[in-house]
Amino acid sequence: MPAVYSWGVVTLLNPTPPDRLVDAQGRPYFLWDCELTLADFRQRLRDPDADVRAYFLGKLMRQAKPDDVFDFVMRSDIEASWSRLAPYLGERRDFWAWLLETWRTRPRERK
């Protein structure tokens, strides 16, 4: 099923299947460097502390496939947190900055 965002409908071309997203202990593939289950990770993305949310959102954007990022957050979440999360993106920062700018500046399709 396509994901619906405020800027239209997006069909994710290659999301990780749910049965391959986590290992036998319930840890997502992109959290190879820490011991958090998928449920723990989702909780961190909803943490009341904006710095905690930004850290884990940055980790997601840095270590997961881009197609998988949008199973956890929406574009508006990324844009709202950009100044806090950008320092956590490492070498992926330029990619995400380009992608967000492309979405902001591309002409809207008319139906």
Keywords summarizing the entry:
globular, 49% helix, two-stranded antiparallel sheet, 6 helices, mainly alpha, 111 residues, 5% strand
Helix content range: 40-55%
State the shape: globular
- Span between N and C termini? 20 Å
Overall radius of gyration = 14 Å
In terms of per-residue confidence, which ranges show pLDDT below 50 for 5 or more consecutive residues?
none
Can you tell me the number of structural domains? 1
Which percent range describes the beta-strand content? 5-15%
Number of helices: 6
Order of helices and strands: EEHHHHHH
Estimated structural class: mainly alpha
Question: How would you sum up this structure, described in words?
Answer:
It is a single chain. The protein is built from 6 helices and 2 strands. The two termini are 20 Å apart. Strand 1 and strand 2 form a beta hairpin. By secondary structure, it is mostly helical. Helix content is 49%, strand content 5%. It has one domain. The protein is globular, with a radius of gyration of 14 Å. Strands 1-2 form a two-stranded antiparallel sheet.
Secondary-structure topology with pairs:
Blueprint: E1 3-5, E2 8-10, H1 18-21, H2 38-45, H3 50-63, H4 66-69, H5 75-85, H6 93-105
Antiparallel strand pairs: 1-2
A few lines on this structure:
Strand 1 and strand 2 (8-10) form a beta hairpin. It is built from 6 helices and 2 strands; from the N terminus they run E-E-H-H-H-H-H-H.
